[in-house]
Structure formats: C-alpha cells, structure tokens
C-alpha cells in the first residue's frame, strides 16, 4: 500500500481540526443490483499488489461506479451521499463504509492510493491532493448512456478492474438492446411515437444530449423538450410545452417529497390538458448506470398504459 507523503502527514499532525472519516448513519434502501464485485474469485497476490487498495470517492456518481467494480475491502471512503437512499441507487451496498465530506485534510488522513472526483466538484481538494502526490482521477459527468458506459470503463482502468468494467458495460448494453428491440416491435415508426417531457420546478426540463433524452428515446417516446429546441438541461416555458402537446409529463421526485414533485403541474392549463404524469425518483437519473435502463423500462410501461387508454378506432362495416 502506498503511504501518504511525509509532508502531507506532517501537515495533518499540525492541523488541530483534522477530522475522522464518519459513518453516514442513514436508513437503508434496497439495492436493485447484485453485489457481484464482492463475489468475484480472488486474484493473484501479484495482480492484487498492483491495484489501488485504499480508494476514496468524493462524488456520488463515482461512489456508485466504485461499488459495482471493486471489493469493499479496497474502498477507504465514499461521499456522504453514497448511503443516502434518496440520492443513491446503491445506498444499501454503501452502508458501513466510512464517508467523508470532501476536505483535503480528512482525505489525506486516510492515506489513499487513488481518489475519484467529479470534474466540477471539490476543486480545491483535488488541487491539494495532487500537490501532495496523491493520484486523483477526475471523471466527467454522463450526458447519455454512452457517457455512462465510458465512465465505468475509465474508472475500471484506474482501479485495475478492466474485466469487471467490461462485464458491467456489456450487461447494460444487453438490457438496452433488449428494450430497444421490444419497443421497435411495438412501434417501428419513430415519427408516430408519442411525445413526453421532463417538467420540474420553474419549467426545468431536459432536451437533447441528456440522460433523459436517451431514456425517453429508448422507451419509445419522442422528447418534447428536444423538439422544442431545449439544449441540454434548461427551461421549457409553459407556452412551448403546451404547443408540443405531450402525452406524458415526467416529474422528478427528490427524496420523499411527492407533494413538491407535483407542484409544477398544478397550473390550471396543465390540469385542463389531462396529460398522463409519471414521477421518477431522481436517484435513477442523477448518475449514469444500469438504473437508467430500469427507468426507461418504467417509461416504456407508461407508454403502453397510455396507448391502451386511448380510444380505439371503430371497425368500418361495408
């Protein structure tokens, strides 16, 4: 195991406020994924010695990638959100693993040999860790299924778990292809597919180049926000939403706040439209992963339910 540089340890000794890594202490949530990372056959001693053995993750999305890739014994700490069941799909798997707030001092105290971060968070911590010679991997966010799979492979290379990374990606691709084939068989004409839109507080929506766009397309919906010209994540004004006449409004639900999720839909105009609504837990979309395909499955079920509720054409009698 690599040791933290002497200068880093000296600095830590001088810091009176040095913190210990703390347990999250949040209620558990069932994980939809098998904990296959802990069930893999043991590797040889030589191979094990070359792989990072004290990995710290400071980002919810890298937390969840790490939990799918490596054994618990190699995880020194995760972010505090990892064990939060309202934020993480793998909260149950994260229980019992130390958590950190993200300061350089507490991370250095763990003597990590690899730290995973996001590209737009913990910038000060990232700079400090690199200054002390700690290997840091900044993982870009995922704007679609391909990005999510690239994230897995990137982290897998850094942890020395390429085979496991490939296995996870292949599993995700297989589920994606199976749903795509099912949707194509149901309605091969993409132009005639119904429209749906994410619609949250202040008209927040998701256009082209987002996880939501990929999920809607895979589930057999056209993305009304993308067709209205919303780039990435942005605002979809009510007037433009109505002009698209979506048949489904996808409502993000943060935590257990179902009432808050429905608040943007209480506008009388939306009530008059009688549009189908589907609440989707934010933990299924905030990070890329196999749960995105599970969310797309829910969207496909909503589309089928919507189609079955439409008036059926009457047969023409001669």
UniProtKB/TrEMBL annotation:
Mind listing the GO biological process terms from this record?
A: cellular response to iron ion
**Which controlled-vocabulary keywords does the entry list?**
Signal
InterPro entries given in the database record: ABC_Transporter_SBP, ABC_transptr_periplasmic_BD
Domain Fe/B12 periplasmic-binding: where? 54-307
Q: Where is this region: Disordered?
A: 25-49
Q: What's the domain of life for this entry?
A: Bacteria
Signal sequence extent: 1-21
Q: What is this protein called?
A: Fe/B12 periplasmic-binding domain-containing protein
Its taxonomic placement starts with: Bacteria, Pseudomonadati, Pseudomonadota, Betaproteobacteria, Burkholderiales
């Amino acid at each position: 195991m690599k040791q933290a540089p002497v200068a880093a340890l000296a600095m830590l000794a001088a810091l009176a406020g040095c913190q210990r890594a703390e347990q999250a202490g949040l209620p558990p949530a069932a994980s939809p994924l098998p904990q296959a990372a802990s069930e893999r056959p043991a590797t040889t001693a030589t191979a094990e010695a070359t792989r990072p053995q004290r990995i710290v993750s400071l980002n919810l999305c890298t937390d969840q990638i790490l939990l799918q890739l490596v054994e618990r014994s190699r995880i020194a700490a995760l972010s505090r959100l990892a064990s939060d069941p309202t934020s993480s799909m793998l909260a149950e798997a994260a229980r019992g693993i130390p958590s950190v707030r993200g300061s350089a001092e507490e991370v250095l105290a763990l003597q990590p040999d690899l730290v995973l971060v996001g590209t737009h968070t913990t910038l000060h911590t990232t700079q400090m860790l690199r200054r002390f010679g700690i290997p840091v991997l900044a993982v870009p966010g995922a704007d679609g299924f391909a990005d999510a799979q690239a994230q897995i492979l990137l982290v897998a290379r850094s942890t020395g778990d390429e085979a496991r990374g490939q296995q996870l990606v292949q599993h995700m691709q297989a589920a994606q292809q199976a749903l795509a084939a099912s949707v194509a068989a149901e309605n091969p004409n993409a132009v005639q597919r119904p429209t749906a839109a994410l619609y949250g507080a202040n008209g927040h929506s998701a256009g082209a180049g987002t996880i939501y766009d990929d999920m809607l397309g895979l589930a057999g919906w056209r993305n009304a926000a993308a067709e209205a010209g919303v780039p990435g994540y942005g605002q979809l004004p009510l007037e433009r939403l109505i002009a698209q006449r979506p048949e489904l409004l996808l409502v993000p639900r943060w935590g257990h706040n179902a009432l808050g999720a429905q608040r943007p839909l209480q506008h009388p105009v939306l009530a008059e439209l009688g549009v189908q609504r589907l609440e989707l837990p934010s933990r299924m979309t905030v990070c890329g992963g196999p749960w995105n395909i599970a969310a797309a499955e829910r969207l496909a079920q909503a589309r089928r339910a919507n189609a079955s509720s439409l008036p059926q054409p009457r047969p023409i009698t001669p």
